[in-house]
Amino acid sequence: MKAAAHSTMEALGLEPEDYDEDQTLHWRQANADGSAGAINGASKRRLIDLLEAGLNDPVKAVVDLFAVYAGARAAQLARSHATGLAGFGSTEAARQTGKESVKTWRVRSTNPRKSHARMDGESVGLHDTFSNGARWPGDNTLDEDERAGCTCDVEIEFAD
Q1: Cβ count near 127 (within 10 Å)
Q2: What is the mean pLDDT of residues 21-43?
Q3: pTM, full prediction
Q4: 155 φ, ψ to 5°?
Q5: Using the 8-state DSSP alphabet, how is residue 130 labeled?
Q6: Which of 75, 99, 131, 146 is a good FRET partner for 152, with 20 to 30 A between their CA atoms?
């Protein structure tokens, strides 16, 4: 997050040291709490679905589910969370300047989901949301299907 903020400040021709990470403490705590709740909630729902499915070997099904979580899902969640933190850092750096800014959604994947590919190059005001309702790529306000594995980026420019 801090690296993304500093990079944004540099790209805007500003001093990276002017970014005040302490101003983000409340958001960071709320984001961590929300992410943990969403991840645990989704895991709980999947476990309940498995146990209610009347499987012949529910223990094996649960073990298999957690094997997926420990492998691919953990990496996907980490990538999504890193994308969201970077998006917040870039947007917050621009907000802290107090200057009117525009943010642009940029796809960085060679195989993006269709909804993100349609948004590539979409620009909105700094305080506005993109057409998918996100404040930035990886925004934790999006549902898991829109957020999971996202590697998009947000670019910030000062408004004319």
Answers
A1: 12
A2: 87
A3: 0.80
A4: -110, 140
A5: P
A6: 99
pLDDT in tens, 83-141: 999 999 999 999 999 999 999 999 999 999 999 999 999 999 999 999 999 999 999 88
Residue 145 pLDDT exceeds 80: no
124: how many CB neighbours lie within 10 A of its CB?
Answer: 16
Q: Does 160 score more than 80 pLDDT?
A: no
Strands 101-106 and 123-125: antiparallel
Tracing tokens 């750096």 back to the chain, one arrives at: 93
Amino acid at 36: A
Rounded Cα distance between 9 and 147, Å, is: 25
Identify residue 33 by its one-letter amino acid code: D
Three-state SS string across 37-97, please?
A: HHHHHHHHHHHHHHHHCCCCCHHHHHHHHHHHHHHHHHHHHHHHHHHHHHHHHHHHHHHHH
Beta bridge partners of 101: 158
C-alpha span between 155 and 91 (Å, rounded): 9
Give the span between the Cα atoms of 112 and 90, in whole angstroms.
Answer: 21
Q: Please give the structure tokens belonging to residue 107.
A: 């796809």
